[in-house]
Amino acid sequence: MPIVIAPTDTELTIIKVLADEKTKRHLESLGVVTNGKITVISSRGGNTICVVKGIRLAFNRETASKILVA
């Protein structure tokens, strides 16, 4: 499921990032990698705030819908 509809305050595993190569490389530099851990703190109107490796990241609806978790 994309992180935009993922439950909050639950540690999830990133399964896949469905973005173009430039965006994928940028997300990887922020710690958003396959098999990495991510926790959704808040999701409102598609905009999502997450914690990855202790750092808070904010994603817009478009980017959040491309990060798949389980």
Helix/strand layout:
Blueprint: E1 11-17, H1 21-29, E2 37-44, E3 47-52, E4 55-59, H2 61-64, E5 67-69
Antiparallel strand pairs: 1-2, 1-5, 2-3, 3-4
Overview of the structural elements:
The chain has a five-stranded antiparallel sheet. A hairpin with a 2-residue loop joins strand 2 (37-44) and strand 3. The chain has a single domain (3-69), classed as Roll (SH3 type barrels). The chain contains two helices and five strands, in the order E-H-E-E-E-H-E. By secondary structure, the chain is an alpha+beta fold. The chain is globular and about 25 Å long.
Quick overview:
With 70 residues, this protein is of the alpha+beta class. It contains two helices and five strands.
CATH topology: SH3 type barrels
Helix content: 10-25%
Radius of gyration: 10 Å
Shape: globular
Poorly predicted runs: none
First and last CA, distance: 7 Å
Q: Give me the count of strands.
A: 5
Using the 3D structure, state the CATH architecture.
Roll
Count of structural domains: 1
What fraction of the residues are assigned to beta strands by DSSP? 35-45%
Q: What's the CATH H-level homologous superfamily?
A: Ferrous iron transport protein A (FeoA)
Class based on secondary structure composition and strand pairing: alpha+beta
CATH hierarchy class name: Mainly Beta
